[in-house]
Structures
1.
Amino acid sequence: MASLVGSRVERKEDKRFLTGKGRYTADINLANQTYAIFVRSPHARASIKKLNIDKALKSSGVVSILTGKEIADDKIGGLIAGWAIRSEDGTEMKCPGNPPLAKDNVNFVGDPVAVVIAESLAEAKEAAEKVEVDYKVLKAVTSTADAMNGDTIHEGIDKNLCFDWLLGDRQKVKEAFDKADKVISIDIINNRLIPNAMEPRACVADYNAASEEITLYTTSQNPHLSRLIMSAFGNVAPEHKLRVVAPDVGGGFGSKINVYNEDIVCSWAAKKINRAIKWVAERSESFLTDIHGRDHVTHAELAVTKDGKFLGFKNETIANLGAYARVFGTVTPTYLFGPCATGVYEIPAAYTNVKAVYTNTAPVDAYRGAGRPEATYTIERLVEKASMELGIDKTELRIKNFPTAFPFKQTLVHTVDSGDYVAGMEKAKQMADYKGFEARRKESEAKGKLRGIGVTSYFEACGIAPSAAVMSLGCGVGLWESAEVRFNPTGQVTVYTGSHSHGQSHQTTFAQIAADELGVPIENIDIVHGDTDKGTFGMGTYGSRSLAVGGIAIVNACKKIVEKGKRVTAKMLEANPEDVEFKDGEFIVSKSNKKKTIGEVAFACYLPGVRDEMKSPLPEGDEPGLKETSFYDPSNFSFPAGTHIAEVEIDPETGHVKLEKYTACDDFGRIINPMVVEGQVHGGLAQGIGQALYENAEYDETGQLMTGSYMDYTMPRADNFPEFNIGYTCTHATTNPLGVKGCGEAGAIAAPPTVMNAVIDALGGQEVTMPATAEKVWKACKNLKKSNAKAA
Amino acid sequence: MGKISLEVNGRKVEKEAPDNTLLSTFLREHLQLTGTHIGCDTSQCGACVVHVDGNSLKSCTALAADVNGSKVTTIEGLETNGKMHPMQEAFKKLHGLQCGFCTPGMVMSAVDLLQKNKKPSDKEIRDWLEGNICRCTGYQNIVAAVKEAATKM
């Protein structure tokens, strides 16, 4: 039987999506359901003086209106930060309460203060207009860089500072800098982004008074984790009385990790009114209240010798948390950021210091890449600048500082098990025709255009993560993953995974893995996820962990099935279990060459007896049935890496940046389905290029979101991209049995510095902030003309 | 309230609906054709594209009453006798979709492109699909799928 792992298997999930039969949360309608509309703060910072619902209650069709008071009276808990981070001085981080409905204060535009529940959506909307809230508007804090100087947003949190965190050794770094021939420094802004999964968030909550169970259908990347948080912290219902279902989910990119206000409020309210409640975000609500990403202000320095060896690195960053610290809010700018800050280089001394600040903006949390794009942007922009200042070719400078052997003990935290960074660089250069660039630059110049080339070499830490390691660093949960593999008596297999697919293709790739492990045709394997009533507790999908953690749990559960199968076969064929081998779905006794198929063994496990004989196929100690579970806790993170090269052409008359070529050469370890991996790379690149050239979330000084619709927030579209040129090198991960590393975030991590390095190269080294819009680039082109004229 | 009469996916339908009912709402809420998706509130994303009298239309830009009497095709109506349309087949073959949310609008828009331009260039495909936002695929495999479908239609 040919192996399916490594094949371009077409997706099992596609037919339903292509024929309109996907079932997303907004497609679910329950009998007798009501509709919820949230009344949200129009102010970025205000205290609530008075909230009057009298008029709204009289509006037609209103079933109930609930406010922060009721939710507090019912002792429903607030939203939480999932990681406790300690400051350099040893103090614990400072987190404000974040009630699902604000009672006394609102802290960003969109912060909900009441929910209106009515018989129809139109009636709910009309009544919501009649809720009167008397706000005392306070001065908002919106700037990341100045947040520590602003008014105190949350009582008791001095300077709006959540923590002031350090990773690394300041003294060693000082010594390294003292020895340097040259110090390259850079000030950069990692622009704020809005994830914009195409499916707006939604939830439908139902209460069954007979069983006293709440069922919540919601747009979540991690339904089990959502249930845990809603139960343990939200106090909505005990876990066994709360079912969370995340059906088809239309993209997440990190924005659907969090439990949101609406999940808690609708679940709680459904029980209160004893009816189902449906809420679907309008896109403007998504813009205002989905978590945002990035938003760092950084000063970084690299100490180098004159021949280009890196000696030391420092990174001083202010990270914007938004109004509240949410699930991955505090870890994103710390342990997902700091350890990757030194990139793919041997740098003997380094530190990263992060001051995380509160502002009156939407909460900032994990968005595709989460911390690693910010880290990579900093080091790769700095290295490119070093190459310009030292006059050393940008690829040579990088190679000079790559680790020469693996495992590579990286400066700050990680031990990278495997990789070959030089091979990746060489292949990327060849794919991009790096050598031919100067000729292309001249051609562009002849047309009056500016051409630039940019390089990024990155690694990232994903496959999160070893539980003991992350919990030692403040994570509130372990980051293992579960799988359950169930054979049916007639031989088909159902695999339950604790991870969740919202575009990642698990139904296909996980089935490929199980098909290879069990020798069962892929069409007889179903992957089930997204329902806390189906399968065991699992941690969900984020941090490129589904395959590297969840996939391994499936492998391990399958291996247990095979072990039991060997024992059963031995009993059935009167052989020693040690003499039974398993291959391509058959158990073979090596001495006699007698066989049983895995289907026959499964059947015997469920029907363990024979007519007219007192005989069981089950060895002593084995129970009937064929079902195994694995909780896999990884021994290390996984470390994808690669080199990307971009070429841009700029029209100095208009400032328009045209991305001419984009080459990505990645090492993701073993690839399960090349077609799916290509899709992940393309998508990641589009988001990364989007950050570099188009996307930007902007608040004005009063805290109003200026980019709150697709009319003002520039989403990348089909005509913004060239055809990407992608390729791979492959070193297998040594820390998991599949040798896999993860591919979901690489594009979003590597693309921003790659594109910006190209833009800045074209502009003669002039700094431009992301996104490199035509206006900014046009101004830079004018400066370039002036300085060229002076030089002449 | 008014009566909306349409031929949707080859079947005649008649329903009472408030005058301000958008075509997208009418399809999803009154006919339970939930394959047509709503991804934004400014007619930018294109997840709701359907065909009205043979031409693609963002169904959130029209009132159901505006298209009264028309023939409407939604993603649910693209198969014939249980066989997927060549465009649907091409999207599957070339991985032109991931989460599936933008897919119905993307496919309906692409089908209309090939009705109007049988052999579009890459640039023409990318320009045509400018009104359909996809956050997952980076568009590359969508473009490839449209080209593939062009060889089959």
Note: Chain A touches chain B through 57 residues (CB under 8 Å).
2.
Amino acid sequence: MELFWLAISTIAIGVFGCVAWFWGSNMVLDTIYPPKGPNAGDNIRKANQIRPWLFLGPAILFLTMYLVYPVIDSLWRSLHNSTGSRFVGVDNYTWLLGDGKFRESMRNNMLWLLVVPALSTLFGLIAAQLTDRIRWGNIGKSLIFMPMAISFVGAGVIWKFIYEFRAEGETQIGLLNWIVTRLGGDPQIWLTLIPWNNFFLMIVLVWIQTGFAMVILSAALRGIPEETIEAAILDGASPLQVFMKIKVPQIMGTIAVVWTTITIVVLKVFDIVFVMTNGQWGTQVLANLMYDWMFRGSPDYGRGSAIAIVLMILVTPIMVWNIRNARKEVR
Amino acid sequence: MDGMAGQKSTLVWVVNICAFLLVLLWTIPTLGLFVSSFRDRDQIANSGWWQSFSAAEQTGFVRTGTDDDAVQEGGLYVIEGNVTEGDQTLVAWGTGARDPARFQPGDTTEIEDGWQLTVNADGSYRLTSPEPFEMRRGERIFTTTEVPPKFTTGNYQRVLTAEGLGRAFMNTLTVTIPATVIPILIAAFAAYALAWMEFPGRAILTAAVVGLLVVPLQVSLIPLLRLHNEIGIGKGYLGIWLAHTGFGLPLAVYLLRNYMVGLPREVIESARVDGATEFQIFRRIILPLSFPALASFAIFQFLWVWNDLLVATVFLGNTREQLVMTGVLRELMGSKGGEWEILATSAFISIAVPLIVFFAMQKYLVRGLLAGSVKGG
């Protein structure tokens, strides 16, 4: 109950603080430069130069403190030793290049990067196309979209249950092993099955992200002008040809957007690996490796930051691409 | 679509079946968890959840009574008892491990020198012998029994109280609500400035917001943890609220700006001409009109904060009293790896609220996604 009041009062203070800032600062501005009297025009002009910064102030403060400053600080730390007391140049990075776990993480991240966006987009496209053509499509969409609302940790539990292993001869309570034994195979401990265990982890993220891809792609598919499709059908194109040669090329831009958005999620993937294998059995990924260096045993902030910076470098191309697209649109 | 009628209806069928399979594939994992959370421990361990709606078969053996339990009945020595317990029903039985289901209920068999054993459908058995029994341990009767499907809410009671999930639920709520409300306010003002005010540097700021959208959270962890320690916030609710506000802001500003740019120019211009201040325009016109976008972001942020594990682990303490639900779940996965009734129930509790929000507000979520990806990208 105490907690409840703490939360409520925080919201109250937070909301009140925000409103007070915006309202108060505006009022102060209007008092200093009153929009009437002899210099009204001049005052309004001056006030309008300052006002945007009052509106933007808190946002800029937060963005700088919580996103911009950390990037710079991480960069600085990655060039220092574990506690940040001594400058070590690029030692942390050269150490990374030689470290087995880092190489494993890079390899796995690249695998994730190839598999997850591709499969999610593919399944999303199939799901969009199928559900757009049936009567109960909206219910179907909701159900495929649903994993989006489930936490990575929750999804981890869900899928670990599916991969559950019981010794041969016992009743299999994991769905996958049950199917495998029914088909005459031997039960496997899927999560320790190097290198395939990586794919069993990826499936979890594909399961989550497909709904997202489906929603976006379905909207794009519906935006395709009818005439192009009708023309193709009149020319005798089969449904598959219409889909592959008319529809898909027209939504390439959206596919690219979906792909890059999922790519970002994949690069940062942490929770799934953290709770399902914790990077054991050859499944380590960058985000989890970084967490290890930050919190396990004696923290090494230098190496942890270096890994974070590697992540940052990996997302930079997408960042640049996004910014260029956004600017094109503004013009 | 034209083409021959026959072809068309086949195609419709194929599409329906494929869609059904796909939906099934995507639903089954969650369904399994949901069903399992209502099963009791023994049943989860003994059969797959997909078998939980039919009677479950169990095998085992019981021992008969010994000499002491024997009674004399007209020249025969008799031991009587029951091999089933609770709501089990007997399907088959046997006397040897090699063939444990050799006999049907009601059958009689001779074990050795005149000993007769009968086991009935209700589980009662009768072992008779013309001579007094001489055995220290009872005879083994192997049984195959069926248990009717059984569901319970006991797991939920146990998990909410004994495993501390009730407390974690409150913690999660405490983290989530302020972390959802505060960024909305801050972002709304900033978005309005970026969308409708003229000032130098607007384009660069907008681009910066787009850029910050993809900055990996991991980069922020070490610097912010140290910063929080240095300025005295330390680990706690305040820290995590601030952190989530910071991390959620780029998306909030971006979504809201994109939406506000699309609002009709005339309305805002005419309000300005009428002498409304920017603050009034914002409060009376922009905020009400932007409700769909505000709702979209609120859902995003709510789901994201509620489901987050990393930020909570780093910025909130890790004692039992401080854990959020994802944290408890993670701990349970480590400590109660095989106890699926606990794991399934806890997981379901932790995903129930997001699922409710998801299904209730799906419209806004989809709108937000479309605004965030198709338009901007």
Note: Chain B touches chain A through 117 residues (CB under 8 Å).
3.
Amino acid sequence: MLGNTKNETNIKLPFSFILFSLPCLIGSMALILFQGDSIINSQFRVPAIWSAAHLFILGWALMTAMGAMYQLVPVAFLTPIWNERFGFIQFAVTAFGILFFAHSLFHNPESALVPGLITLTGILMFLLQMFMTLRKQAKPNVLTLFVGTALFSLLTAILLGIIMVFSMKTGFISDYYQAVFKSHILLGTAGWFTLLIFGFSYKMVPMFSLSHGYSMKPAKYVFTFYAAGLSAAVISFFTEKNSLLTIALMFLAGGFAFFTWHMLQILKRRVKKKLDYSFRFALLAIPAGLAIHLGAFLCSLTGSFESTIGYLAFAYLLLWVALSIMGYLFKIIPFLWWTWKYSKEIGKRNVPSLKEMMNDKASIPVLSAFILGILSMTVSIANEHMVMFLSGQILTVGASLVFCYLIISVIKK
Amino acid sequence: MNPEELVLSNLKRVMDPELNINVVDLGLIYDIDFSGDGKAVITMTLTTPGCPLHDSIISGVKYCIEDLKQFSAVEVNLVWEPAWTPARMTPEANQLLRG
């Protein structure tokens, strides 16, 4: 019986991804600091901003998500990682590709095809790894649907990104460039990150709150609404039908609202009354994400979507995606290090609890400063206010630096 | 102390590091059985099927029984049915979690 429970991944694999991602977070935030003029004027299509955006999304958020998945997929789906050695090679290829890609976007975007293809190779290797791992799952469930669709969205987003670079170089399908660009952004953010966070929230929220006896039936409606919204939005980009985009945004907001309601139902059934502070920040990202979804729908309804999407997308990435990841990392990193250092000692001697591995209370000032910085930057973009942008971004860079320090300091425990 | 009490007492050394409560007070131990050849068979569960501490807790349980000279071998059966519920916790564990 004991033999088939060995699902733990070699801890060096998720750690490699997460440690690599930390300088990418600081680098991307620092790059944005010097692009205030362009950002407050909603000029996002600037090489330095492309570079910062990809360093942030691919270098930090994607690499962190991959690292977390190498750890969480085996335990959440009760199946070991298909091939760990392949995982280390995938890490090396992806890390090299992302750094090369961000560098090319900054200096010469037209030469970004080769590094883009290397990054694509790394991501395809990751997708193969996950496909081979998930297909071994004995009983697929609704989580498989969320995570599987998130992985499919990631694949599509990356392929669309490569088509964009190819189109810039050769003029291939240039008539559809805008539709491809919008689909790339949508599937890379809402399709990949949101569905992934939804999926793992269904595992992590009950686990960290010790909730029991709740129904999982609403998860099907969350998925149906959100997936319908994503599909309709992509169709609206290619058909250029604004009314369809409004309907799509309504479905996306509806799916997110269902998810928020479902999370509340789960939390109502919790045994652990006092939740960890960092976990509360991960939960706080949910109403933030809902507000942004509702905002996008209302803007589309009033015809102001095109002029507001820049800062809505900015707030979406940072207040929903980044805040969720940061909140959960406060829980995941101590667990990873604890497993590495104390897993074999449990029962043999006194071992520290996970709470003793990281200062949970430190998440209050750090993540509050991060939120405040992002809010102030979002408002500054809306009001084209440079001083507010700079003070907000300095706060965000500072919070990111302390966040990275706290993550690394776990290794000393 | 009878063998079951001895095993339970030793298993209290295995703490769930997330909750900081031992596996006995959490109600994770379903059954303890002893075969004639000195083997202890533990049937247990975890608070959730996707618990990331899966392997660590089970190896801790195994070690704690192997540590007892009275038993020549140990087998740990991890089961998900019946599923764990908070009702299985001792009042002390309940108090700790509910504050």
Note: Chain A touches chain B through 37 residues (CB under 8 Å).
4.
Amino acid sequence: MVMAAKQTDGHHPTVGRYLDQEKVRKALDAARSYGASYAEVRVVALTESTVAMRDGILEKAIPGQELGMTLRILADGAWGVHSTTDLASLSDQIESTTRLAKAVAKRRAASERPKALAEVPIIQDETHWRSKLDVRHTELDQKMELMNDIYRGASGHDDIVSVRTGWSDEHIHTELMTTEGMDRVWSFQRSLIHGMVTARREGEVVSYRTRHGGQGGLEVIQEADLVQLGEEAQRAALRLLNAERAPSGKLPLIADKDLTGVYIHEALGHPCEADLVAAGDSCLDGKLGQKIGNELVTVVDDPTMMGGYGAYPVDDEGVNTREKVLIKNGVLTEYLNHRETAHHFGVEPNGGARAQDGLHHPLVRMSNTMIHGGTHADIDELMEDVQYGVYACGTRGGQVDTGRGSFQFAAQEAWLIENGELTRPLKDVSVSGLTLEILKNVDGLTRDASLASPGFCGKGQTVPVGDGGPVMRISEALVG
Amino acid sequence: MLPEGAEDRLLANANVIADACKGSGVQQWDLIGFQSYGHQLDIEAGKITMAAGGGEGGFGVRVVDEGRFGFAHLVDVSGAQRAVEQAVAIAKKSPSIEGFVLPSEQPAEQVSGRMDRAVLDLSPEDLLEQADGLLSEVKSLDERAVVTGGGVGVSATAGCLMNSEGILSTGMTTSHGIGLQVSLEVDGELTSSYQGQSSRSLLPEMPACVARAVHWAQVTQNPLRVESEAVDTPVLMTSEGFSPLFSMVVPSAMTGEKMVRKESFWADKMGQQVLNPNLSVHDNGLLEGGMSSGSRDGEGVPRRRQNLIENGRLNGMLWSTRDAAQQVAEGRIEAAHSTGSASSGGHQSPPSTGCTELFLTSSEQGKSMDDLLKHMGDGYLVNSVMGAHTANPSSGDFSVTTSSILKVEGGEIVGSLKQAGFSGNLAKALNGAVVLGADVRRQGSYSSGSMHLPDVLMMDGLRINPA
């Protein structure tokens, strides 16, 4: 991966730009003349490709070009937004969008604070995270060959009824111009390969999903042993055919890196999103500086973690990215912020603004979220003290009610732990709990921590994320 | 809301792509296009925080040559030639499906109620007034309640579908939607409820979802102190709570492809009883005013009403043209034809198979909520679940969490639980003793289509695990 950042003096050639800078500057000036205190134009051009195969045969391959632009105007302390695929219509939307913002502002009660943005460095530059192997140049045949590696590993057993494989890549090019003089261009790529193995025996149907990917081009996929991924998925699917339904109740839980990542994403990451905190919809409201977890627990969110599926060079408000330490030794230290929430809480923005694409406005979002490693050597050491519990692996997703602080996540497969040993395989294991209780129940972490499988996060808009950590033990969780 | 001539421009742009297809020499092609415009208000922390508007659109083009297909999508039709070339190149690498040809023109019924001028005429200022009204209504229902999330939106969409075989379908749809997350914090105990409603026509000034959101935030306050012990128990689910699980598990189980590939828990059960004998499931692609109904499906085949499960017996499957041809060609089924069930999720992907307006009905008289509670006796009433998307569509197994759950004893609600695990197998539960409520409400879906569901009481095979 090569990161090429080029500071310029604000003058860019129009070649390679989707925005006509002169026209955009005029439009932004017009917004000011209509009474906007701030306006921005962000355009995102996506070059993307998805491929789906089943049992080694191509089902569909979809190349696509998408272009979207969002105009965001802050006037009288309220937002007006206009999103469109018609870039040429920008100047026609300035007055009406400013008027909309003012109409919202009129409804604000005298006791309410007008919205404003925290100040940030005004930068004119181009930042391009260049992939070693630009994924836009990867031929369909090569993608199919790599997908077939998963298929070869996963097939070849009478109980495997289908192996679906998928591919997804995107080149994201973003341009942002603001009334403050920000003029930034950045680009990067993401690549993902995945498989779904379905097994059936005597009417019992189970499936197991495997994924590999990250920020970058073809090299991200090539670094994985895809045949082995397929073989592991096959073994897991066959194990699930023999798995029992999980016991229900409050039990000790050991989570693998995948599940630890989803846990920290759902249970802590979402309640740390400052737009939810400001809206009164987070159980972590007012808890900055307080001890909310076991001192073993340190959690970071870091979009600069190169290779992570949630990595990005610049946030969607043009703010430089950095690592955020959300919890340090059990103490809540920082929320994820964009410029509006940073102003609300009187802190510096920390590069947490992300939009799904050019047709959506930025929200506060996670990137690569990880819990740091602890002191245990390995999973065996974590299991030693567990008389009766569950070891859960892989993720089928999760969900959180940030206001109540209750969350749920589901494992792909699991084992019963009896007297410190893994005994019987389990299926359909889900774990739920309350953020402020469970963080205190984390009582063991292995030393090695890393990002696990790539994922997606929905919050009205879908964005790619990376999650991970070490293998984690929770002394008591609601397992079902 | 919709700019003058939007439909004409959409069609003109579609014809640019059609010309590129014709010029490519490909045997068959079809394309879909849409252009939508809308306004939306976001509500947070009890106030309107953002007004947004805009328009978006795009085209998806599919080419078919000797049973091989390729697809590409684009926004700017100046790239039509390139997109068609890409689709043709992909078709050449795709396997040939014997018998796969695009459908030809057939008469299709018109479906009314898909567009409402009153929605088109709504201005952003009208929406602001409606949002003001919603916020006032919530406060009037409970002074302590705060709308912590959600919003109001309207949209109008011009769509077109055309193919090389003479199908040309254009039309306009409108939609009006409201969603509210209502939170209630009393003595540090926060409860909340999300409820939403949408329609092709103008919603009533004060939709029923507003009162429901406040009600569920209220009734889940003051949770009971209970022992954490899992119990097998009857569960009564409101339509809102049942829909995410039902839509995750049932529609995909009824697609022909999953049936014949034996990836559905109902595979090999055609003609057999799969649900309680009082239950039926039908898909009505011609539903007046439906959010997913219409004259034609995503491939241009006329939509229809089809009974999928009658009196508990499985007697139908959902097919698109391509899926049907592929499964016949690969020998998994002797004959299969499109049931007008190709759904197009947008311009970025080719049509897939799915339901449109799926109804769960009973041959017995639907019961009121009070009667359902009495019938249940002891059990739980669940209004929403977390993690429905983690349910297993291959098996019907699910294990989710709820913070919107009431304990019922002797047919009376005795209080709420703070949190509980909820697990079981939905297919098996629906094959046990099931009683449906009388009030059918349209719900959104994790899969394609809309779910028309009453409150559902399931007596068997479910487990509640209070936290």
Note: Residues 1-15 of chain A have pLDDT under 50 and may be disordered.
